[in-house]
Amino acid sequence: MKENIELINVSKEYKDFKLDNINFTVKEGTIVGLIGENGVGKTTTIKSILNMNNPKGSIKVFGKDIKKYEKEVKEEIGTLLDDSYLSEYLTAKQINFIMKDMYKKWDENKYNSYLKEFKLPSNKLIKEFSSGMKMKLKIATILSHNPKLLILDEPTSGLDPIVRNEILDIFRKYIEEDESRSILISSHITTDLEHIADYIILIKDGKIIFNLPVTSLLEEYGILRCTEEEFKNIDEEDYINYKKEKYSYNVLINDKDKFKNKYNLKTIDKPTIEDIMLFYIKGDK
Amino acid sequence: MNTIKALIKKDLYNLSSYKVSIMIVVIFCSLAIISTGSVNYGPIMISTIIGMSSLSTFNYDEISKANKFILTLPVSKKEIILSKYILTISSIIIGGILGYFLSIALASTMNLFNENKIDINLMRLLYSTVGGLFGISLVEAIQIPSIYKWGAEKGRIQMFAIIFSIIVISAIGFFFITKLNVDITNIENFLNNYGIIFLIILTMIMYYISYKISYKIYKNKEE
Amino acid sequence: MNIIISNSSDIPIFKQIENSIKEAIIKGELKEQELLPSVRGLANDLKISFLTVKRAYDELEEEGFIKTIRSKGSFVAPKNLELIREEKLKEIQNLIEKIYDISKVSGITKEDVQELFQIIFEEENI
User: Fold this and answer.
1) Which of A125-134, A270-279, B185-194, C110-119 shows the lowest per-residue confidence on average (mean pLDDT)?
2) pTM (2 decimals)?
3) Given C8, C38, C51, which is nearest A198 (Cβ)?
4) In whole angstroms, what is the distance from residue A87 CA to residue A14 CA?
């Protein structure tokens, strides 16, 4: 599989924050989720990929150096960043006239069919749209030039569960249409990512803590519930982190089958990605 | 070039809600011209109104965080800035032309009904138009970089500070010129003969420097 | 074809998918040469990662249930079905032999075992 995004030793320093030596790839046909608390570097990472903040290190998109081929590469990307957009004082129809000149490959028919599919009025000011409608219009705007890569920063935040699911379905459909497409999606709503991402990257304090397939997180990781005595008998290399509760110990393990073979401890729950994230960020180890 | 066109379209659509208020102000100005008979100020007023309205596109951009979005599109920072200068300069020129002909039209209409005719001096009107355009251009050439530096809201205060200091500096300069007893009749002659061309060239240089400064500021700014 | 996935089950998701597809093939719901849903398509419909589906398909292919042709998709494998049935029968035979061993050692009668069998099969039918 070819890589649609490749980051090698990417760093970016601010006064009070540092993105530290980030390395990861997004392969063709995959959806990669970025998780972590607010302000740990998710958006900075995304901005680096888009060459918006002058980062150090090597960033390749579609195998091309973003710093050299910025324009060419951006013709093939669709991005949602923060709550930014062209303007709220326009209509969906005017957006079409603008974007027609913006992208060489803008597909007017596709845009109009999205408007129809998402039930968006074309002559109403965007300002008057609901937040769900605004997001759908943004999505229609970033999909209508048939990008090879979607970069989505918190696309579901602030939306109700029904709209959130509709939006995730749009992205599922998008990736299914063409095997060479990829999505990089950041969210603090980890349940959304659990149901759409193939790989999860956890970022903490500007560093990557792990980069793993969702499958192994959900099926190989486990949360052991045990007593203090039992916990003291576990070798340190056999668990990732633990949390001391009032009446018990909760322990995150990354290979429950192996663990079950070694220890006679059976109360092991399946974790959610949020559980795993909390152990890594707030664990006592 | 197409992407610059797209950016200008975005600004024009944003401004379309201004159509009515611009019309009202233009009508108001026409009334002012008629009642005072000061035809020569017509072009200045009209081009100021239309030229300044292009600056409000910066406010629209700020509200929607437009530049953050635009920088994810196949557009460079250079093109973003260029589009703003093209929009500003052309709106000032259009305002000037409109003001010029509107003033002539107003004066001619007034002369139809009035006893004491207004003297329509096309050359003088042209001088005042170009002079007006120069003045507004000076303001905008200062304001655009300051918006890039401090933002559309804050930039305004900074701009007044800069304009004020320019006035003070030129006053001091003028004071010294008179003090030093330099013969300024040569300069006056020069201005009378080549005034319009001189002002146009000066305006172009001003915009060029302003553009360079804006680009330098914006290049290192992170949206 | 029905694919029912339970998150609370101890069986890994890929195995659950694998079993559902096997069942459909053995029951004849999926015919020989029939095209299976694409990996990404099935992943989207089940709202899970495509890697999970891929693993299920890989194992099915290894066991000879399906055949994947690059850029065309995965198909139900021909012929092997009889072989699979035989294999399963063999597996069952092995298990029954184990039952036989246990019952012999602990003095459980054939009738006891048969009764247990009856109960389990009836439960299944409910």
Assistant:
1) B185-194
2) 0.84
3) C51
4) 29
- Sequence-separated (6 or more) residues with CB below 8 Å from residue A101: B2, B3, B5, B6, B9
Q: Which amino acid is at A204?
A: K
Q: At what angle do helices C50-62 and C39-46 cross, to 10 degrees?
A: 130
Helices B19-36 & B77-113, crossing angle to 10 degrees?
A: 40
For chain B positions 140-179, those within 8 Å of chain A (CB to CB) are: none
Mutation target among A215, A257, A270 for the C interface, most CBs of C within 10 A: A215
Residue A14's closest chain B neighbor by CA?
B222
pLDDT digits (tens, 9 = 90+) for B147-179: 998 888 776 676 677 767 777 777 787 677 667
Task: Show residues of chain B in contact with A81, CB under 8 Å.
Answer: 68-69, 72
Terminal C-alpha separation, chain A:
37
Q: Percent of chain B, pLDDT > 90? A: 29
Q: Specify the residue for token string 């607010």.
A: A38
Contact state of B6 with A77 under an 8 Å Cβ cutoff: no
Three-class secondary structure of residue A182 per DSSP: strand
Interface A:B, ≥3 CB–CB pairs < 8 Å: yes
**Cβ-nearest to C51 among A172, A176, A213:** A213
Coil, strand or helix at A149: strand
Using the Cβ of B19 and the Cβ atoms of chain A, whether some distance falls under 8 Å is answered with: no
Angle between helices A161-177 and C39-46 in degrees, nearest 10: 170
Binary contact (B65, A82; C-beta < 8 A):
yes
Q: What is the largest CA-CA distance in chain B?
A: 63
Give me the DSSP letters along A236-251. GGG-SEEEE-SS-EEE
Q: Which of A30, A35, A23 is nearest to A193 (CA)?
A: A35
